[in-house]
Amino acid sequence: MVVDSRQVVPGGLFVALPGERVDGHDYARAAVEAGATAVLTGRELDVACLVVDDPQTALGRLARAVVDRLDVTVVAVTGSSGKTTTKDMLAAVLSRLGPVVAPQGSFNNEVGLPLTALTCDESTQLLVSEMGARGRGHIAYLCEITPPDVSVVLNVGSAHLGEFGSRAAIGAAKAEIVRALRPDGRAVLNADDPVVAEMAEDSPAPVTMVGESASADVRACDVRLDQGGRASFRLSDATGQADVTLLAVGEHQVANAVSVAGVARHLGMPLPDVAAALSAAEPASRWRMEVRERSDGVLVINDAYNANPESVRAALKALVGIAGGRTSWAVLGEMRELGEATLTEHDAIGRLAVRLNVSRLVAVGEGARAVHLGAAHEGSWGRESAWVPDGDAALAMLRDEVRAGDVVLVKGSRLVGLEAVAAALLAEDEEDAP
Ligand SMILES: Nc1ncnc2c1ncn2[C@@H]1O[C@H](COP(=O)(O)OP(=O)(O)OP(=O)(O)O)[C@@H](O)[C@H]1O
Ligand SMILES: [Mg+2]
User: Fold this and answer.
1) Is the per-residue pLDDT at 278 higher than 80?
2) Of 71, 185, 233, 319, which has the fewest Cβ atoms less than 10 A away?
3) Which of 113, 286, 311 to mutate to test the pocket of ligand 1 (most atoms within 8 A of CB)?
């Protein structure tokens, strides 16, 4: 089943959804010509069609019917940052228990989630559902499509603060994933995030607390970062302990990994196997702390997928850790959707960059100007911090001033287009190569 007529396979069902830019109904004929057996549509069309009141609701109900019919364990994940990263890690680790279906990319909404669920078949044992929320009731709705057996809440940050109004409101929306559990389910909650930890009170099911706090049931201790910014830690629970070294970059990965461990332990995987599987999990989705080295030794960290205050902080710490004594560059774009907190959050990032001793800060675009100003107020001077109007200007500056051996973090929302800057930095190397 597909919603894009270009992806139709013979015998498939095409769901005609009204999109932001195009209306799926206009592609019904193309879908049938490409081999679709029928079109699920909101109105009568001149092709074989199943007419329903609302194709999107029907898509969700179909997915639910499939999930109900199969014997799959649903693991649902939400959080302000790290859902996709954790989803990938879950898929890698849980595949040791049996066949897993997990979303492609970041399919985490009312369309992507049912489409993912519809790819389950009789062989599927586990379904990982990434659940994003832009408002109240969104996650509750997603939980009706794939009712969770295990619900994971990673963190409650300030992503989408603009739409929700407050962190408490974001927390309330995320808690829907916990309230949707049945009493025989399990909540896996971040003990280190107070807003998440409180959700234990909302849970109809037993809770596994995970994190670095002493109160965690599944715990990470002795966290260290190696020179490549990869974290090692000791994973422990009531049954013992085992060492983990992650392949993904950044200390924030520890929180994601320990959540995965909480799920895997609940599903019966022995602790040493969990540790081994976590240590073997390759980062799967692009533009998230992707580290590449140019032949001149310049290290480019491409984290241009999205940016919110928590993920920028995590990325800055990783940058400084990786750079060690080398010159570190933080090329930062605007963080979107922060509402009234926009100015203070950007200012705080600029100040943090100074406190972490980032060598060169480059704030890109009008929305990121406060990052530069924050750095200046915190005492940066001269060339330590700069503001440039756009990606092209940032690239010109980097081409001019980055030296062999420097470490360059590029971080922003994909809407701002900074991944092009990271790509251009790396492409230069290919042009120079013999
Ligand atoms: N636990 C974490 N805490 C802070 N930042 C994180 C965490 N995990 C991942 N990140 C960073 O957050 C950014 C987004 O990661 P990811 O795509 O996994 O999140 P997401 O929640 O799926 O985002 P989206 O809402 O866009 O789907 C990346 O820059 C990543 O490095
Ligand atoms: Mg995602």
Assistant:
1) yes
2) 71
3) 311
Contacts of 214 (CB under 8 A, 6+ apart): none
Q: How confident is the model at residue 105 (pLDDT cuts 50, 70, 90)?
A: confident
The token pair at 368 is 């990121």
Any atom of ligand 1 within 6 Å of the Cβ of 283: no
Write down the pLDDT at residue 165: 80
CA-CA distance, 402 to 330, in Å (whole number)? 12
- Read off the pLDDT of residues 302-340 as tens digits, 9 standing for 90 and up: 998 888 898 899 999 999 999 998 999 999 999 988 888
Regarding the beta carbon of 116 and ligand 1, being less than 6 Å apart is answered: no
Closest protein CA for atom 11 of ligand 1: 311
When mean pLDDT is compared across 284-293, 298-307, 348-357, 369-378, the lowest value belongs to 284-293
Minimal-distance CA residue to ligand 1 atom 15: 82
16-20, 238-242, 332-336, range with the lowest pLDDT: 16-20
At 184, list the tokens: 């025989």
According to the model, what pLDDT value does residue 313 have? 94
Instruction: Determine the average pLDDT of the residues in 283-300.
Output: 88
Q: Which atom of ligand 1 is nearest to the CA of 289?
A: 31
- What local confidence, expressed as pLDDT, does residue 431 receive? 60
DSSP per-residue string spanning 305-352: S---HHHHHHHHHHHHHHHTTS-EEEEE-PPPS-GGGHHHHHHHHHHH
What is the distance between the alpha carbons of residues 421 and 423, in angstroms, rounded to a whole number?
Answer: 5
* 119 CA to centre of ligand 1 in angstroms: 25
What is the predicted pLDDT for the residue at 434?
A: 45
Ligand nearest to the CA of 309: 1
* Phi, psi of 340, rounded to the nearest 5 degrees: -65, -20
The closest ligand to the CA of 311 turns out to be 1
8-state DSSP, 156? -
Percent pLDDT > 90 in the chain is 73
Q: For residues 296 and 68, what is the distance between their CA atoms, to the nearest angstrom?
A: 55
- The 3-state DSSP composition of the chain as helix, strand, coil percent (nearest 5) reads 40, 20, 40
* Alpha helices (H) in 70-105, listed in sequence order: 83-94
**282 Cα to the center of ligand 2, angstroms:** 17
Which CA distances in Å does 416 have to 157, 248, 311?
A: 21, 24, 16
Res 382: pLDDT:
85
Q: Report the atom number in ligand 1 closest to the C-alpha of 79.
A: 21
Candidate from 160, 306, 332, 418 with most ligand 1 atoms within 8 A of CB, to mutate: 306
